[in-house]
């Protein structure tokens, strides 16, 4: 147990599983009070109970729900100091520009871009009186061409652009709100496991062989764990990064270096 986030209150979207859960766990262990939100109610309640956190059911694309959550916190006398816009999907993975399904793309953009946009909007409105840190989960796919996951890459590039805009706006307004993005590369989550399975099936190879092929894309030779992304979020949420805003923090094992 640490104390780097003692006295802070964090709202983490998509916190029931994967990277969001790892961030919530790290924040709790560093002394923060944490509110997990997720569209999966049962998984969110289970995660919150396990961590000693709070839970609120939320669809991040529903603006009225953002308003309700912040209003409820205000009524309880709680000020959010840290907002982590983590909720997102990757269901366009493996789709080239010629195969795009616009209906699936619209859903992905709504969650990955509009969900973060609404989070930033209401985060800024509710944090500007006391300042704080907004952390947006982007991806290495938002910085390099994503020819096999076109819509996903575009959505994460949008998150990066939004992050810079919010950072500059808040600085110019004197709000004391910092906004930064984290860009994971290959992370060992359920989504990554599905990529291994897809490659294994496509090439008729074992799951282990598929994992080795994908791992070879990482210069360090290792696929990161969610906890390593959580460590990056901890830095951006803590007072160790008070002069860091509009920045992008890579957790990609050097993958960007090869582009």
Features of the shown structure:
single chain, globular, 259 residues, alpha/beta, seven-stranded parallel β-sheet, 2 domains, 7 strands, Rossmann fold
What would your notes on this structure say?
The protein has 259 residues and is α/β, with parallel strands linked by helices. It folds into 2 domains: 9-186 and 225-258, 3-Layer(aba) Sandwich (Rossmann fold); 188-223, no CATH class. Helices cover 47% and strands 14% of the residues. It is built from 8 helices and 7 strands. The protein has helices spanning 18-29, 41-51, 63-75, 102-127, 150-173, 190-203, 207-215, 226-237; strands at 9-13, 33-38, 54-57, 82-85, 132-137, 177-184, 248-251. A 7-stranded parallel beta sheet has the order 3-2-1-4-5-6-7, with helices on both faces. α1 links the parallel β1 and β2.
Helix and strand arrangement:
Blueprint: E1 9-13, H1 18-29, E2 33-38, H2 41-51, E3 54-57, H3 63-75, E4 82-85, H4 102-127, E5 132-137, H5 150-173, E6 177-184, H6 190-203, H7 207-215, H8 226-237, E7 248-251
Parallel strand pairs: 1-2, 1-4, 2-3, 4-5, 5-6, 6-7
Helix pairs in contact: 1-8, 3-4, 4-5, 6-7
Question: What's this model, at a glance?
Answer:
The chain is α/β, with parallel strands linked by helices.
What is the overall number of helices?
A: 8
CATH architectural name of the largest domain: 3-Layer(aba) Sandwich
Give the N-to-C terminal Cα separation. Answer: 38 Å
Main sheet record: 7 strands, parallel
Label the overall shape: globular
CATH class of the largest domain: Alpha Beta
């Amino acid at each position: 147990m640490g104390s780097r986030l003692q006295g802070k209150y964090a709202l983490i979207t998509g916190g029931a599983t994967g990277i969001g859960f790892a961030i919530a766990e790290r924040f709790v262990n560093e002394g923060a009070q944490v509110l997990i939100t997720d569209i999966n109610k049962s998984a969110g309640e289970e995660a919150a109970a396990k961590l000693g956190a709070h839970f609120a059911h939320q669809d991040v694309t529903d603006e009225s729900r953002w308003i309700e959550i912040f209003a409820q916190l205000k009524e309880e006398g709680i000020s959010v100091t840290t907002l982590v816009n983590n909720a997102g999907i990757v269901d366009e993975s493996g789709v080239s520009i010629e195969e795009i399904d616009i209906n699936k793309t619209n859903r992905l953009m709504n969650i990955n871009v509009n969900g973060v946009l609404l989070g930033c909007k209401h985060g800024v409105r509710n944090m500007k009186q006391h300042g704080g840190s907004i952390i947006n989960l982007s991806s290495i796919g938002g910085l390099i061409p994503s020819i096999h996951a076109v819509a996903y890459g575009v959505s994460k590039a949008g998150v990066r652009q939004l992050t810079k805009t919010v950072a500059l706006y808040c600085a110019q307004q004197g709000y004391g709100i910092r906004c930064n993005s984290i860009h994971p590369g290959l992370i060992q989550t359920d989504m990554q496991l599905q990529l291994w399975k897809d490659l294994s099936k496509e090439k008729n190879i074992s799951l282990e062989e598929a994992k080795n092929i994908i791992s070879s894309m990482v210069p360090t030779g290792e696929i990161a764990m969610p906890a390593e992304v959580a460590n990056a979020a901890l830095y951006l949420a803590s007072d160790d990064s008070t002069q860091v805003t509009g920045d992008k923090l890579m957790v990609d094992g050097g993958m960007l270096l090869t582009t």
